[in-house]
């Protein structure tokens, strides 16, 4: 082609138009990627979708699942929730998703017992569970618990001035009882004076600070309940060791001192009361998985728990104080403020006991502080769970692990660290030598 000024001008125009068209096409693709999402999953294990366990779980649902996400609109967590919902809708198009802005609807957040952004309520009909984070593992486990769920019976002792799960006084547990009832727990006050029997269908017995001594027959019934595999939540007060010495001996519980003092929290809250302790570092425990914030523990006792080895109890710390906490006793911080005991039942399942050094943190007065409400609900859920193993919804892919023998490791190490650099140096030297010639 003969080049002249007109040809050169046309070539330049063509280059400009091609560049402009390319930029417009890229801008259009970028805009479309923000408005529309298309996913092609070519992986062998369908990693862009749901695991096989989650798919089977969704296929077994008789009612449409509903997710309520507490996230700020337009934020990263909101996008994560939308992506997760799309994955579930690929198998359950009838899934309902609702997002709640915590800043605009704080009352709804309080009623739901949500203590951090990104938490979800998972509902099937009238039943609901909480998922701590918008991930497949958390949501599918919540759905699995709902499918397994039956009516869970929670009983508490009456007649001795204990904290009442339906009481309205500051020291009572009425607000916690309302929250448990909303989550499907059946609450029942239990008078061992009128009915000297703890029903066998009791999933959880709550012992919350009796103010007067129990009769010898009542003490025997409590010890028989634990010895027979019954679950127990003991909100232990220091006087309980004198009122229930047999039960304390069975579980190996002693009180090191009371109350634990927290000077930093006293200064932070400006209350002038050193008996209020903030605990913001939580041990690894299933109960604490959904607890992301601090827990306010008022007037809590430091405990030591050492049951007899023959009883086969597995003791795990649940609440542990900080290094700066103080106690009028010859014990060194951090102090044990709460723990759980677990052991297998003879006929399957697991017996669970939780012992906390005080019940004020769940009282009507303090339940709304920090993550206390979430901890109370998580404790009740865990203690009433039958102990069946949960499905693993996060099994790693077959190609995420590389296993090599020692010979292969040696060859790879020698090849990459010595052989490959030597080869590159040799090729470079030969090219330089030929260039010189």
TrEMBL record:
Keyword field: Membrane, Transmembrane, Transmembrane helix
Bilayer-spanning residue ranges: 411-433
Superkingdom of origin: Bacteria
Protein name: Uncharacterized protein
Native source organism of the sequence: Alkalilimnicola ehrlichii (strain ATCC BAA-1101 / DSM 17681 / MLHE-1)
Lineage of the species this protein comes from: Bacteria, Pseudomonadati, Pseudomonadota, Gammaproteobacteria, Chromatiales
């Amino acid at each position: 082609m003969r080049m002249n000024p007109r040809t050169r001008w046309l070539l330049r125009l063509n280059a400009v138009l091609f560049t402009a068209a390319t930029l417009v096409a890229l801008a259009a693709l970028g805009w479309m990627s923000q408005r529309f999402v298309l996913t092609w999953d070519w992986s062998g294990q369908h990693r862009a979708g749901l695991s096989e366990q989650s798919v089977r779980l969704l296929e077994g649902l008789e009612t449409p699942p509903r997710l309520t996400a507490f996230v700020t609109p337009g934020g990263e967590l909101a996008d994560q929730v939308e992506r997760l919902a799309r994955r579930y809708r690929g198998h359950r198009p009838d899934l309902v998703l609702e997002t709640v802005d915590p800043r605009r609807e704080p009352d709804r957040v309080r009623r739901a017992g949500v203590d951090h952004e990104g938490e979800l309520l998972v509902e099937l009909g009238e039943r609901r569970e909480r998922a701590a984070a918008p991930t497949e593992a958390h949501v599918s486990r919540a759905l699995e618990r709902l499918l397994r769920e039956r009516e869970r019976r929670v009983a508490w002792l009456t007649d001795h001035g204990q904290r009442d799960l339906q009481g309205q006084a500051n020291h009572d547990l009425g607000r916690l009882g309302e929250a448990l009832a909303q989550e499907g727990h059946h609450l029942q006050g239990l008078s061992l004076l009128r009915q000297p029997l703890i029903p066998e269908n009791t999933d959880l017995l709550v012992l919350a600070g009796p103010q007067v001594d129990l009769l010898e027959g009542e003490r025997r019934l409590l010890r028989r309940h634990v010895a027979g595999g019954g679950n127990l939540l003991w909100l232990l007060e220091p006087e309980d060791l004198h009122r229930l010495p047999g039960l304390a001996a069975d579980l190996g519980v002693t009180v090191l001192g009371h109350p634990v003092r927290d000077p930093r929290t006293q200064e932070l809250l400006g209350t002038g009361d050193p008996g209020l302790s903030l605990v913001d570092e939580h041990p690894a425990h299933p109960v604490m998985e959904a607890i992301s914030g601090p827990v306010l523990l008022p007037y809590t006792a430091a405990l030591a728990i050492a049951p007899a080895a023959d009883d086969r109890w597995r003791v795990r710390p649940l609440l542990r104080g900080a290094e700066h906490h103080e106690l009028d006793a010859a014990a060194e911080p951090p102090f044990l403020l709460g723990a759980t005991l677990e052991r297998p039942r003879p006929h399957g399942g697991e017996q669970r006991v939780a012992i906390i050094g005080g019940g004020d943190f769940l009282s009507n007065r303090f339940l709304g502080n920090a993550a206390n409400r979430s901890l109370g609900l998580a404790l009740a859920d865990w203690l009433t769970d039958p102990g069946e193993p949960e499905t693993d919804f996060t099994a790693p892919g077959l190609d995420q692990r590389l296993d090599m023998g020692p010979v292969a490791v040696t060859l790879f190490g020698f090849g990459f660290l010595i052989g490959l650099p030597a080869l590159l140096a040799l090729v470079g030297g030969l090219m330089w030598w030929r260039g010189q010639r």
